[in-house]
Design brief:
This protein has eleven helices and 13 strands. The protein is of the alpha/beta class and 339 residues long.
């Protein structure tokens, strides 16, 4: 069994006493380090930068996928409807680029990262960089009409000052054992939830338990549902509905994302008969031999940014959209632009 699997089982399923003993000292050191770092930012010993436009952070306090990308796309789409010019900045996780750069729809995910390419291909203005401040300044320099910046996964990036923070929570995994890394999946302590502007729960798992946990923090809680639109084959330029895809018997679901089980559940809930699943590490860079030609392959939009290079006719992309149960978050964001 892979070490990652053993540790994640300890985080989310069953606490391993031996791992508790081994990992506790490292978790304690991590807590001391992030506490000191936060104090240094608070005292402005480490400087942070304020942009000339409002900044909205869409992040989380756990490692792994929580549903930030669909929420960011949803917010971006709503801002577009209201004719509010925005830009998106992010690190460009596992990209080859460290310095700030503008992302275009023709870039490679290997160069700019999965999420950045998804946003660019959706027609949004995007910049990446390990220094998010520099990425945002580059985006504003080249697009002076931008009125607000959305920062994907920037909650712990305190170099960038923010006007609003949205913390996304995966309802299936919640906060695991509620311990800090590496003893648990938390990037920051649970008390961090008291300081965010809003919490968005992604999915409909464990809602009673989550409501009990989150009620302690007195922060507004909203719910996000991921809705499956259709399945698109980019090579054949064909689309299928869930009903049409459900008629295919030989289906394999493939995902290299933070929580692939949630993706597989969504497919089955929409009537897809999955014969086999194949999971890869988050942000995995695929090789041609990873994909079988004996199945109709269903994968995520994020995974397809790396599979597109192979031009496989049997790969279908599950196209999804997010929906919030309240307009309050969008109203709060737009009020930053139009007080």
């Amino acid at each position: 069994m892979r070490l990652q699997t053993i540790i994640e089982r300890h985080w989310y399923l069953r606490i391993d006493p031996i791992l508790m003993i081994i990992l506790f000292p490292f978790s304690l050191l991590y807590e001391i380090a992030i506490t000191i770092r936060k104090i240094l930012f608070t005292l402005r010993i480490i400087p942070s930068s304020k942009l000339p436009v409002p900044v909205v952070i869409i992040g989380n306090i756990t490692v792994g996928g929580a549903g930030k990308t669909p929420l960011t796309k949803f917010i971006a789409t709503e801002l577009t409807k209201q004719n509010i010019a925005f830009g998106i900045v992010l690190r460009g996780y596992k990209s080859k680029t460290k310095s700030a750069r503008i992302v275009t729809a023709n870039d490679s995910s290997l160069e700019v990262g999965d999420e950045a390419l998804i946003y660019a291909q959706a027609g949004f203005k995007v910049a990446i960089g390990s220094k998010r401040v520099m990425a945002a300044k580059l985006l504003l320099q080249q697009n002076p009409e931008i009125q607000i910046i959305l920062a994907d996964d920037g909650m712990q990036h305190y170099y960038l000052r923010r006007n609003m923070e949205i913390c996304v929570v995966d309802s299936s995994r919640m906060f695991g054992n509620q311990q800090l890394l590496p003893l648990g999946p938390l990037r920051e302590p649970m008390d961090r939830l008291k300081k965010v502007s809003a919490i968005v729960v992604n999915g409909n798992y464990n809602l009673d338990k989550l409501n009990e946990i989150l009620s302690e923090y007195k922060t507004p809680v909203y719910h996000q549902d991921i809705q499956l639109i259709n399945f698109y084959n980019p090579v054949l330029a064909e689309s299928k509905t869930s009903a049409e895809m459900g008629e295919i018997e030989n289906v394999m679901a493939v995902a290299g994302i933070g929580n692939p089980g949630r993706f597989y559940d969504t497919l089955e809930q929409n009537g897809i008969k999955i014969q086999k699943v194949k999971s890869f590490p988050d942000h995995y860079h695929y090789q041609a031999h990873d994909i079988s030609d004996k199945y109709a392959i269903i994968t995520t939009e994020k995974d397809y940014t790396k599979l597109a290079q192979f031009k496989l006719k049997n790969v279908w992309v599950a196209q999804v959209t997010a929906r919030l149960n309240s307009p309050a978050i969008i109203n709060q964001i737009t009020s930053l632009v139009h007080p």
